[in-house]
Structure formats: C-alpha cells, structure tokens
Amino acid sequence: MKELKPYRNKLILTCFLTCLPLFIGLLLWDRLPEQMATHFGADNVANGWSSKPFTVIGMPLLLTALHLFTVLITLNDPKKKNIGGKIFSFIFWIIPAVSLICCLSTYAYALGLPVNIGLIVNLMLGIVFIVLGNYMSKNHQNYTIGIRLPWTLDSSENWNRTHRLASVLWVLAGIAILANSFFQSTAVLFLVIIAASMIPAVYSFILHTKGI
Description:
7 helices; mainly alpha; two-stranded antiparallel ribbon
C-alpha cells in the first residue's frame, strides 16, 4: 500500500526491535524457569505467572502484531496530515520500547536479578505522559490520536481548546507519576491517570454545551 512505502524501513526496524526480546529469550531459554512472573502487585511481589513459551515467544509476537496494527491504522487515517510529526514518530517507537523494557525486565526478574517493577512502570508511564503532553497541543483533528469525542471531532475549536488543556494536564500528570516512582502507590497512579483522562473529556463536553 502506498501509505506504507515511505515508512517501510522504519517499520521493519521497529518490528525487529519489538521482536528482539524473542531472540534474547531463546538464547536464555535453558536458564529461564518454566513459569515466569508476568504480573506484579503494588508491593512488587509477583502475583501472576505465564508459561515460558508464552512469555518468550507469545508476548513479543503479540506486541509486534499490536505495533503493526497501530502503525497501519495511523497511516490510513484520512486526516493523518493533521497528526503532529513528533506524535507520529512516537507511534512508531512506543511499542518497541515497551517490548524491550517489559520483556527484558521479566527475563531479569526470572533470572533472580534485583528488578524494581514498580519503579520501571512509573518511570515508563511518567515519560510517556510528559512526551505526549508536550506535543498534544500540536496535534490537530484526526481519527486516530488524541481525545476523539463526537464534539472534538465535530469542532476544530473544541478540539484545539481541549488539547491545549490536556497538554498541560498530561505534563503535570507525567511529573506526578515520576514522583510516584519513589512511593510506588497504585492508588496515586490510577488517580493521576483517571484525572488526566477525564478532566479534558469533561471540559470538551462543557465547551460543546456552550456551542463550541
């Protein structure tokens, strides 16, 4: 498809990086346990496990499929020209980064290395929120990325105002999540994420009721 052609090399590279944990896992296969911790509680204690084949092979492949789906949906957005260049690049790199960090952390934990999952999760989410927040206001109306509500898609003014607010809130949320790395409170994490998601949505609806 012609939409994909200019990005073919980047897509190949990012798919390779997303799958890279699979090859690393195969190299470590004999050292990894048959059941591997893949879910952790607020106290960084494992409370969910998956089989070695699913963790080493299944997870990277699922993430690669998700990566392809996300990129192709974005490239086929009728309004993709309205998507900010930085956020467009973010779409290409976020899942490969998640795959490398999460899968390699899982392997390290399985091998008995000291891994602070709560710290990793908070740092990763904090950075994501800050990056998205910095470029949110530069992202114009589209069907793929942003706060896509009926009233934001119907009104460019509503979209722009909502995303200007979201831009500030998401940067603040990212800073709060990074600070939470020291406390690793699940309640704080969820409250910050819910607030950053709901406040712009409510604000956009209020604008809609005012005819904006």
